[in-house]
Amino acid sequence: MEIKIDDLNNGAVVQLLREHLEDMYATSPSESVHALDVNALTTPEITFFSCWENNELLGCAAIKELNAKHAELKSMRTSNHARKSGVGTRILKHILKVSADRGYTKISLETGSQPFFKPARHLYEKFGFQYCDPFSDYKLDPYSQFMSYALGEKR
After folding, report:
1. Taking the complete model, does pTM exceed 0.90, yes or no?
2. How many CB atoms lie within 10 A of CB 56?
């Protein structure tokens, strides 16, 4: 598997993000959907990654810098055909390494509270993410769960 910084110009990546947004709107009220569209993922504070194997898109994720020490995990998604194959684990390990290398001491995320999001919450829990209060501009929302992970000092 190759995980690389992506410029969001590949049609397969755009389609995967479209599917991601469709799932978010199908499972949560619109005011509780915090997933970003392609344009929002191209802002300077966001680094977007895609995961590939043999020219096949397996998944994606992004890091949004909130400040010099705190980042947010955004748009983590595994392609439907690659589910339960370890792609999410590989991407999350990569995101945590890049975040630590950049000197962030904490990475946070927002995910859904509904059953659809249980596999994602389980993955984050497995990595040591802890449930927390809303961060950044988020507000308490019964459809959202907030989690954070303390990263080590930059090596």
Report:
1. yes
2. 11
Q: Over the stretch 25-82, which tens digit does the pLDDT of each residue have?
A: 999 999 999 999 999 999 999 999 999 999 999 999 999 999 999 999 999 999 888 7
Q: How many residues does the chain have?
A: 155
Token couple for 1: 């598997």
140 touches 132 (CB < 8 A): no
Q: How far apart are CA 26 and CA 28, in angstroms?
A: 6
Residue 9's SS3 state is: coil
How far is CA 64 from each of CA 69, 113, 119, 150, rounded to the nearest angstrom? Answer: 11, 21, 22, 16
Statement: residue 94 has pLDDT above 80:
yes
Nearest residue to 88 via CA among 104, 111, 55: 111
- 88: tokens are 């999410």
Token pair of 119 as six digits: 């596999």
Which backbone phi and psi does 37 adopt, to 5 degrees? Answer: -85, 175
Q: How far apart are CA 86 and CA 101, in angstroms?
A: 23
In 3D, which of 142, 11, 151 has the Cα closest to residue 72? 151
Residue in this structure with the two tokens 């998944």, named with its chain if needed: 59
Residue 154 scores a pLDDT above 50: no
